[in-house]
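Submission checklist for the structure archive. All mandatory fields must be present; incomplete records are returned to the submitter.

[x] Identifier: Tetratricopeptide repeat protein
[x] Organism: Streptomyces tagetis
[x] Residue count: 714
[x] Sequence attached
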Amino acid sequence: MTGAMDGHAEDRGRVYQTSGDQHISEHHHYGDAPPPPGGPDSVRRPAVGRPPAVLRDRTEVLRRLDASVRAGRCGEVYVLYGMGGSGKTAVAYTFFHRATREGDRVGLWVSASDRASLRAGMLAVASDRGADDSELLAARNGLRPAADLVWQHLDASAEPWLLVLDNADEPEILRDGSWLRTSPRGTVLVTTRRSAARWWPGAELQHIGVLPREDAARVLQDLAPHSGTREEAAEIAERLGRLPLALTLAGGFLSQQVLDPWTMETYGRRLEDEEGVELIDQGADALSDEDPRHLVGLTWQLTLDAFEARGLPEATALLRLLARLAPEPLPLSLLNRAEIDGALPRARCEIALRALLDQSLTELVDVGVRCVQSHAVLLDSVAAATPADRLPALGTTAVRLLDAAVPAVPDAGPHDPLLRLLVPHTLALLRRAGTPSVTADALAVATRLSTALHRTGDYLSARETARMAADLGERRLGAEHRLVLAARSRAGRALFRLGRYTEAEPLLVRVHAAQERLFGADDPDTLDSAHGLQLVLGNLGRRAEALALLRSTAAGRRRTLGPTHPLTLRSRSSLLVLLTPPELLTEEDGTLLSLPADCVRSLGPDHTVTWGAHHNHAWALYQLGRFEEAEEEIRRVTEAYRRRFGADYPITLSAQQLLARTQSARGHLDAAIELMTDVVTRRERGLGPTHPFTTAGRHLLDTLTSERGRPEAP
């Protein structure tokens, strides 16, 4: 074979030709889409792990794509569709680099495999194209249309671009929010398994199928040139469905044999002897509708058998452990924990991972955090073939690894990208959990992960994580299981922070009633839902109901948790906001106003609950007309919040709004207006113009402005 391209095609035919090494890397997600993973640190480089070394086929489609870039055309959408593992991502990767290196395009690469990955990636695109932090915060929290923000900045791009939406196997996700659009400034390329034209109106569709027999045989011979004849390679390629991913793995297996090299004839005989070969033969037809997981499962099992024969059972164990999780980037730090000993010795994890990497069974990817990522087809196949007696230990190990990665007591703090990376794996584990005990443990981790996301201000991810976890847990544990109800409660708390009070109220009412009936009024879970419900009622203007519920919550937490527990002090702190001035002087025999000092003694001066108590105490002082004391205290709180959370964080803006009130009350009207103008501007950018907090801030600013224009009394 020469290095020249000597193929020829006519009409609608295509030529597939290759020489040397070829690697096809493609990632998929099957089933319900998880929430939220972490956003990529870069969208300028394709997140495909190890790129294909050589791509000598797909010349027709590449020629057409290249022509569109060379001609400077924009406003076009191309869709590459085909079965999993057919090489769509490899074609997109090759075109991406040609467009960026030769076509003077800015390349932008986004995983569209699930709703969370698409949203995070597209917001990263908006950031790349000039969106500021406050706009991104609003979009992340679902408080302004995220897709509109992204396309606004894409349309305004100073440079022409190429946007790749990779693995868009659930086009409903693109349609929801109108994520897929055209622009006069760039070209969009989509890879997907879904071929129906109704999903891609106005797009130019291109099928990426399995390889022809002869070219599929060449791939095997390129990767394992000394293993057999062209005809033997062609026979194996047929049994493997001529799928590039399966061919790559088979060729890699044959080429890696050192002590006892296999021939293609031996490999073919093993295929004949293994169960499932009949199904593989059926899947060999081009453009078949068979699930690709069944086409390649046997090939992977052969590789696992080779691990066992070589004395590397840990590699098989590690792959089976990964198969309990999601086909998304998994932080390598999770695999370097003592908890992994339940599946394989921690000391052997490095060797096992290297074995998987060497056999193309997983890939290293960098999304700002070093991760390992495996194909969804592979993970589904391995999961289905894992012996039933191994599943409990694997599930328990996966739970323990995720449990160790989530903060034991989530606290308020800045955005943590690691938390989002854990979301799809926690939800995948819930889907695969084979026993009620594993389901319960995984659901507890998912709820705590939702709480951690909530405390960093990522309310939308917190809500989606809790909602999906509750749905998955309910299937095995039942609607009234304690952990299912706790997850529902957490989803309601996130809805409140998103300003969706009318949705949060009925959800929290149902959960609280069920918990009270099942566990009692003083149960910690019941009290937690009660505290969240009173926040909703108070913001809906139902003060009397909210105050009654809050008083009973504070009393119940005092009885159950003790007077110095952070949750007890948090509920008592909330009383400072709801009480009227006369009530403030009589509540708890007049001792409630000393709450900040109680918090300092019990929790320390820098605890989140302590700062919250100072914040609410300043409001109480303002209500009592003690404006100078209130201003001094809320100024300290505002500065502390800015240092810890940033100037755009909702709690920071709440404190700044109170500072403006105290300034106005003390006669510093211009300073108050300046503070509130800043609050309203930041809330409009960060929360959206219709969020209740934005509306309240704008009303206060209007009031202050009208007071400045009012003539002074004689």
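[x] Structure attached
Curator remark: Residues 213-286 form one domain. Residues 1-37, 274-296 have pLDDT under 50 and may be disordered.
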